Amino acid sequence: MTKKKMGPQPMVWPHPTVLVGANVDGKPDFAAVAWAGVAAGNPPSVTVGLQPHRYSLKGIYQNRTFSVNVPSVDLVKETDYCGLVSGADTNKVKDCKFKVFYGILNTAPLIEQCPVNLECEVSHILNLGSHILVIGKVVETYFSEDCLTDGRPDISKVRPFAFGPGKYHVIGEAFADAFKIGWEIKGKPQKTAK
Amino acid sequence: MTKKSFGPQPWLFPNPTVLIGTTFNGKPNFAPFAWCGITGGEPPTVSVGVRHQRHTLKGIYQNLTFSVNVPSIDLLKETDYCGLVSGADTDKVKVCGFKVFYGTLNTAPLIEQCPVNLECEVSHVLNLGIHALVIGKIVQSHVSEDCLTDDQPDIMKIKPFVYSRGPTARYNAVGEVLGQAYDVGKALKK
After folding, report:
1. Which of A84, A124, A178 has its CB closest to that of B80?
2. Which of A98, A151, B144, B153 is least surrounded by Cβ atoms within 10 Å, i.e. has the fewest?
3. All structural domains of chain A
């Protein structure tokens, strides 16, 4: 077997790349996060792993709310920038020219330029060592209308990007239907008449 | 503002597609999950959202271990197949021709054909409604040697894929490099 042992490594690739929004001392701030994911479906929940010293975490503790904004490839520079500087000494909204809006929650800032915006209420916070895992319940979802096809969300119009080790990658064209292509391994069982 | 509200939705894109491996009654089983992500760095931890009735969760409760296997696009059909049938009545390892191996943990089966394999010990299980969120501490990582460049994992050789919803459920490949992280944003720095 030609496998190399690399020790414990966080290698679930690819990672998404999202902008997590929080109000710190009443001011909106956004941080770039790759260690994020969907946790559950009903109620829909998401996870975000943040280092304890992060400025955005301060806002999450203050309000128990945050947002997840999915940037398109057009915002790759702005997204990366939000991971290079701290909101403690930089006004990222101004530097990146984000148009901020609010939905149901008054303390979860949303970025208009990002095609998908999730407003979240904190449900759990776990101390996992180097990172604090924030689990949020999604209370409302916003989708840019120009990213819809027949009124439904279309990821090919959202054009999100992924984070591999050290690099951002585009997401390619859809190349197979989920819950369908697998039947080619073994024929779909025929439904027997009742 | 031209935004449409959809009510609460788990639309954090893109989602990875991984095969979670478990052992139930001594038999290895694998199921695909897109609701999976990294949760912490030191120790490295990973979360996966699993519906309560899943066969996978039975194995996780039995041993408190599981594996995360990152398939390449070459395993697309096998990965999808593992989500169409249940390990309760199907031997997915046999049907898919998976070569199973074990590392440090005896109850976290790993798939040799998957370029990346993580062995995990359960640290937390949270009831989040219709899903249980399983958080695991990664105790060992295995990477196929032909997916390394200068001894480091190379995502273009691993060729993982993502699961996307909308307008229908589909798989997308991870494409070309868009930019270097912690670098492209410097253009905005004054």
Report:
1. A178
2. A151
3. 15-184 (2.30.110.10)
Look up the CATH number of the domain holding residue B137. Answer: 2.30.110.10
pTM of the entire structure? 0.95
Calpha distance B190→B178 (Å, rounded): 22
Q: Which residue of B has its CA nearest to A83?
A: B182
Residues of chain A with Cβ-Cβ distance to B159 below 8 Å are none
pLDDT in tens, A95-145: 999 999 999 999 999 999 999 999 999 999 999 999 999 999 999 999 999
Quote the radius of gyration of chain B (alpha carbons, Å): 18
Provide the residue range defining the domain that includes B65. Answer: 15-188
* ipTM of the complex model: 0.93
Fill in the DSSP letter of residue A190.
Answer: P
Q: What is the enclosing helix (H) or strand (E) of B81?
A: helix B76-84
Mean pLDDT of all residues in B34-55:
97
Tell me: pLDDT of B118 over 70.
Answer: yes
CA distance B79 to chain A (A): 7
Find which of B38, B79, B90 to mutate to test the A interface (most A CBs within 10 Å of its CB): B38
